[in-house]
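User: Teach me something about this protein's shape.
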Amino acid sequence: MDERLHFNYIWAKLDEEGVRRSVREFLDNGANRFVITDTLLGQMMEDGEKIEFFRKVCKDFPVFFSTVHAPCGKYHDLNIPQKELREGLIKDHIRAMEISASFGCRTYTVHVGAAPYCYDKYPLETLRPLAVEAVEKLVPTAEKLGMVIAVENSFEKPNSAKEVLGIVRHFEGNKAVGVCYDTGHAHCMAPGPGKDKSKYQPYFPVCWWENGVEWEDHALDLLKEKVVTCHIHDNDGYGDLHGMPFDGTICWEKLMKDLFSCPNMIDFQTEVCFQSGKNWAGELLAPEGGYSIRKITDTFRKLGF
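Assistant: First, the predicted structure itself:
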C-alpha cells in the first residue's frame, strides 16, 4: 500500500477496544496510516487522555495517524463573520495544529465556510477577506511546525475551486499554504453529458442562492499546482454522498492519473462514508450494512495505491 495514502474511519465513535480492533483489521488488510478526523481532533482538544491513548495505539501496533482534517463548522470555518468568535477560531486552530504536528501530520485541511453565505446571506465580498485573514494568522504556526494549511474546495459558492484558488493565491510562493482537492465535491460541481441541474439534492439551490448553481469544469486543472492533499470519494454528481470509488459516476482511470501527477502532492486521504441508508446528503451508495474495511482497502488498491 502506498505510504502516502491515509484511511479515514469512524475513530471518534469507537471505544478503546473498538479502536484497537479496527486498527488490527486495517493492518491485516495491509493499511497502517490513518486520518485524524475533525471529530477525533475535537475530542483530543478537549481530553488529553484521548491524545495519550492514540499515541499508545501508534506505538503498540505500530500505525500512524499522520494527516488531519481541522475542526470545522460554525466556530472553526475560516470565514465566520462574528467578531466575538474569531479570536477563538485562531486559538483553537493553533492548538489543533500543534496536536496534529505531534503525530507527524504534514497537511492540515481547513474549510473556508458555507453557512454565513448560504443561510445568513453574507456577501462574498465580506467573507473572502475574513478567510484570507484567518489563514494569514495561522501561517506562522504552520511554518514553525513544518505543516501546510490545505484549503478545501467544496460544493457551496464560497468554497468553489475558483474561490479557493483566490484565497491561496494571496500566499503565492509560501509553501505553508496549499489546496486540499476533494474529488466528490468537484464532481458535484462539474458539468457532464446530460447533466440536469434540476436533479440536484435540495441543499444545492440553498448553497447557490444568488444566481443558481454555477458549474465548474476542470477544477483539478485549475488547482493542480497548489494541491498538497486530497479527499477521495465518489457520488452520482448530484449530492455529496461520500461513496466508495466505482459506486458513483466519477471516471477514476482519468482522475487518478491526474491526481498522481500533481507535482506538490504530500498525502492522499480516503473520505468514504461507511454507513448505508440515507443521511443529510441523500440516499447513500453503500450496500445494506455499509462498507467494510476489507472493501475499502481492496478498492484503493484497485485505484493504484
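Now, about its shape. The mean pLDDT is 97. Residues 124-145 form the longest helix (22 residues). If you'd like, I can walk through any region in more detail.
User: That's plenty for now, thanks!
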